[in-house]
Design goal:
65% of the residues lie in helices and 10% in strands. By secondary structure, it is mainly α.
Length: 81
């Protein structure tokens, strides 16, 4: 005898003002708005990751620039002695 498993698919929902609304209860226009929000949030997250990475790169190059200018300054000072 084979075991039968029941697979229950959960319907997507949208939360508005703390209330969960099933996607099937939304109008086409509301579904469109919800999809635009979802895409914009995903894009914002991607842009935030890019900004974080760029900030890290800038900080790294600034630190390298500062370090090399210190090395050059130390060389100049030691040559003057």
């Amino acid at each position: 005898m084979a075991n039968k498993e029941t697979v229950k698919e959960e319907e997507n929902t949208v939360t508005i003002d703390g209330n969960e609304i099933k996607e099937s209860e939304l109008t086409e226009q509301q579904k469109y708005f919800a999809s635009q929000i979802q895409e914009a949030r995903a894009e914002r997250m991607q842009l935030q990751r890019q900004m974080d990475r760029n900030t890290a790169v800038i900080n790294s190059f600034e630190a390298a620039l500062i370090e090399t200018t210190k090395e050059v300054a130390e060389e100049v000072l030691s040559e003057e002695k």
